[in-house]
């Protein structure tokens, strides 16, 4: 019974961590940026204006989840989406495209 409760707690903690990641702006910005092409952290920093320290932390989580990977290209380290990462990023792009088609409500900016 204890092992079952421990496994349930681990699954709950993972669920919370994934939700905290997904529903934050940097996650989507990074994923959509990398959907365009592989990039260095500096490139993503310049494109998204996410603070470099926060960008580093979020990208570490994305790597741990298996959504991105890093490869050395000479002196640079380039981030790219893994196959699961591409699938997630494509779904994010679909959501963004749908949201852009929604009529603008009065009073919303």
From the spread of the alpha carbons, the general shape counts as globular
- Please identify the oligomeric state: single chain
What is the CATH topology? Arc Repressor Mutant, subunit A
> How many angstroms separate the termini?
52 Å
Radius of gyration: 17 Å
* Largest sheet strand order: 1-3-2
Secondary structure: helix percent: 55-70%
Query: Largest sheet at a glance?
Result: 3 strands, antiparallel
The low-confidence runs, each spanning 5 or more residues with pLDDT under 50, are none
- Using the coordinates above, name the CATH class: Mainly Alpha
Mean pLDDT: 86
| CATH architecture name | Orthogonal Bundle
- How would you spell out the order of helices and strands? HHEHHEEH
- Content-based structural category: alpha+beta
Note the beta-strand portion. 5-15%
Find the count of extended strands (DSSP E, 2+ residues).
3
Number of discrete helical segments: 5
**So, the CATH homologous superfamily?**
Winged helix-like DNA-binding domain superfamily/Winged helix DNA-binding domain
